[in-house]
Amino acid sequence: MSNSTTTSIYSAALMDHNAHPDYKYELEDATYSHDGINASCGDEMTLYLKVNNDTNVIEEASFTGHVCAISQASADMMAGLLEGESIEEAKRLSGLFIGMIQGNELSDEDKEDLDEAAELQSISRMPARVKCAELAWRTLNGILSERDKELAGK
Amino acid sequence: MSIDIAANPYKKDFPLLVKHPDLAFLDSAATAQRPEVVLAAEREFYETMNANPLRGLYELSIRATESIGNARKHIAAFIGAGEENYRDIVFTRNTSESLNLLAYSFAPTVLEEGDEVCITIMEHHSNMIPWQQACKRAGAKLVYLYCDENGQISEEEMQKKIGPKTKIVSAVHVSNVLGVENPVKRLAELVHAQGGYMIVDGAQSVPHIKVDVKDLDCDFFAFSGHKIFGPMGIGVLWGRHELLDAMPPFLTGGEMIESVSEQDAVWSEVPEKFEAGTQDAAGIYATDAALTYVEQIGLDKMEEREAALMAYLAERMEELPYIEVVGPKDPAKRYGAFSFNVKGVHPHDVSGILSGENVAIRAGHHCAQPLLLYMGMHTCCRASVAFYNDKHDIDSLIDALDVLGGMFNVK
Ligand SMILES: Cc1ncc(COP(=O)(O)O)c(C=O)c1O
């Protein structure tokens, strides 16, 4: 009797990342940290990145905060995805993810690059939850654009 | 009480509920469903009397104008203002617009720098932000009446906050989050003793309890037709005639003027003075039909059934150890709205999962962010009942919460 649009969002992968987030902790030696806020519900998340500024590679990513299952799972997937990626690649993935959540169709290769995060695509049909899925990625963009500004200023 | 909430003789009147037999619609506090008679009235207007009211001098336009007058009479009688005072009923788009009208047109006539406007912490943003802004414009102070965790505002709190500087008290009659009825009659007494004015936001009271503005002794009363089974887009503002008469208009333009010269205009009388532009006459006609429908069933009968549904809802919720009730524990103190949280699960996830189980509830800040922060949370869930709900709807809600409990392991 279940109606599928909404329950399908709560996929096994999402529920698993929500229940057992691997990357939910405070990163003591983070290079960058940034607070993100979901204006639609007031939820707050802090994102931590440890970046090697010589190689421009993200060595570790993590998050903390009291957020909904969608925000939490999305953040956990993102943190896993970013580890070992270059800043440039992180920007590209972020563009892909936010585009997808805003309703863009992705190529199969792009989907592969987003890995599990590509499964969140169905959220694009639920405008009320788009902000939840985006929260971690928008927070990431906040860090990256601040970093760009800092580097440009030097 | 001998109300059979398992039986539902009302559902058949509501086409949407008939089309979605498996849906447990528990969000009537956001907007109610409309019965067939209301939909038919809207159509009837366009089929039999469609013309621009007020403007034309021909038969159709006269009928359209009459239908608006009749609706005013009906509404005036319905809220206890007296049918003869029907010209003190102003049509707006919704409660929010009615309250903005007051904040822009009435507030400046009484508010001076250093004065105070007093509202409750449980206001809907619609009865909060207009006053924040009006206070900023006037250099006045916005003062809050706080409640206890059961949503009760004490006599002491009212006495403390309402004083010689208080020019306006504007309070929600029934809270859309806590479901409690506020002591608006007492507030009116206190503010009148100080020479101030009483405004009541009746968006959630009109659908659930018999309102009598004369008995409440308020100066203005606002509500929305869409919460009492009427179409969306029709709001009502009732006010004391002498106050409406003395106020400047809010919006200006066509239909609200007596005469116009190149540099100036003379306003129409109340209520037209406040009704610039073409009205949603069909919507007004259908709102009239909605009230007739309510009277045919009987507001007292609806209230009784809603109380029985609320008692059953509260009782079943107690079976679930992971439910945290927000607001009064006593279901008799709740009109329509039952707010709660599921321990450890975000309200947006609750409503998301429930939607998958065909149960429609509201989750979020319910346009009452300061109230929720005051109660120590950002968001919560709300199930709200109307007389067309039944025992099965509530059982569906409990079953869906049970599924959710399993999924999130919150047993
Ligand atoms: C108590 C209260 N006041 C005001 C409003 C605003 O009503 P509307 O959206 O029709 O302007 C609502 C509606 O949610 C409400 O519950």
What does this entry look like structurally?
The complex is a heterodimer of chains A (154) and B (411). With 154 residues, chain A is an alpha+beta fold. Chain A has helices spanning 4-9, 12-19, 69-82, 87-101, 108-114, 127-153; strands at 32-38, 43-52, 57-65. Chain A has a three-stranded antiparallel β-sheet with strand order 1-2-3. The relative contact order of chain A is 0.19. In chain B, helix 8 (213-216) links the parallel strand 6 and strand 7 (220-224). Chain B folds into two domains: 11-26 and 298-407, Aspartate Aminotransferase, domain 1 (Alpha-Beta Complex), CATH 3.90.1150; 39-295, Aspartate Aminotransferase, domain 2. Chain B starts with 14 loop residues before the first helix and ends with a helix. The relative contact order of chain B is 0.16. Chain B contains 14 helices and 15 strands. Chain B has helices spanning 15-19, 36-48, 59-78, 95-110, 129-138, 155-161, 184-193, 213-216, 241-246, 281-297, 299-317, 347-356, 369-374, 391-407, and strands at 24-25, 89-92, 116-120, 141-145, 166-172, 197-201, 220-224, 235-239, 257-260, 265-267, 323-326, 337-342, 359-360, 362-364, 380-384. In chain B, the strands form four sheets. In chain B, strands 2-8-7-6-5-3-4 form a seven-stranded mixed β-sheet, with helices on both faces. A four-stranded antiparallel β-sheet of chain B has the order 11-12-15-14, covered by helices on one side. A two-stranded parallel ribbon of chain B has the order 1-13. Chain B is of the alpha/beta class. Chain A binds chain B through residues 1-10, 15, 19, 40-43, 67-70, 126, 128-129, 132, and chain B through 22, 345-349, 352-353, 355-358, 364-365, 369, 378-379, 407-409. Bound molecules: pyridoxal-5'-phosphate. Pyridoxal-5'-phosphate binds at residues 94-96, 124, 126-127, 172, 176, 201, 203-204, 224, 367 of chain B.
